[in-house]
Amino acid sequence: MLDNARGLMTRQRLRLLDEPSLGLAPIVVQDLFRTWRASHGRGTAILIVEQNAKAALALDEA
User: Fold this and answer.
1) CA nearest 54: which of 13, 16, 5, 21?
2) Is 40:62 a contact under the CB 8 Å cutoff?
3) Is this structure's pTM higher than 0.70?
4) What's the domain range around 26?
5) Domains in the chain: how many in total?
């Protein structure tokens, strides 16, 4: 969670995420994906390896 907060506070051009939702509560995962979708919409490229493929692929719908 701390790494996600740090990454969102900086103006990164690329985010690399490896199983970021592993072990998190479903409501927290929804919030994170919503935040990453908004970040992607502002121009941040996101490379994500995720077991929840449906949610990860939905990031591109921003």
Assistant:
1) 21
2) yes
3) yes
4) 2-61
5) 1
